[in-house]
């Protein structure tokens, strides 16, 4: 089985994430979306809300599993027997950052990182931008799947 892990904080899930997940799921037998837990980070949305956003967005996709994890991503990959890490790239800065992580992960384990470029109409969207829009009372509905829109 070709199992891949798509790790992130997903605070919140954006249309950029959604794009990578929808395209990435076609490449693997199973795609595990894993929300990393970092006690030092101050999240806008609770872990439970973030899990729900993702589960609702992909409820009709049987190849997608949603979970949480603590610790190193490569250790979690070993635990769930994932052979790949899926990552999305929006710009050259993302590539440089993700390349260093991918090389480190490869040095620590046999894990391969697969990069997908975010679709051109979504490359400007980031969770931090979405959080800023929300904090300032802006209309963020065009930046996230409808499962994230708080009614």
Q: How would you characterize the overall build of this protein?
A:
This protein is 36% helix and 21% strand. By secondary structure, it is an alpha/beta fold. The chain has a single domain, classed as 3-Layer(aba) Sandwich (Rossmann fold). It has a five-stranded parallel beta sheet, with helices on both faces. The N and C termini lie far apart (39 Å).
Structural key phrases:
single chain, Rossmann fold, alpha/beta, 5 strands
Distance between the termini: 39 Å
The shape is globular
Oligomer: single chain
CATH class value: Alpha Beta
Order of helices and strands: EHEHEHEHEH
Helix content: 25-40%
The CATH H-level superfamily is HUPs
**Order of strands in the sheet with the most strands?**
3-2-1-4-5
The number of distinct helices, counting runs of at least 4 residues, comes to 5
Give me the Rg, rounded.
15 Å
CATH topology: Rossmann fold
Brief rundown of the structure:
Helices cover 36% and strands 21% of the residues.
Write the layout of secondary structure elements.
Elements: E1 3-8, H1 15-24, E2 30-36, H2 47-57, E3 64-69, H3 73-80, E4 84-89, H4 92-108, E5 112-117, H5 127-135
Parallel strand pairs: 1-2, 1-4, 2-3, 4-5
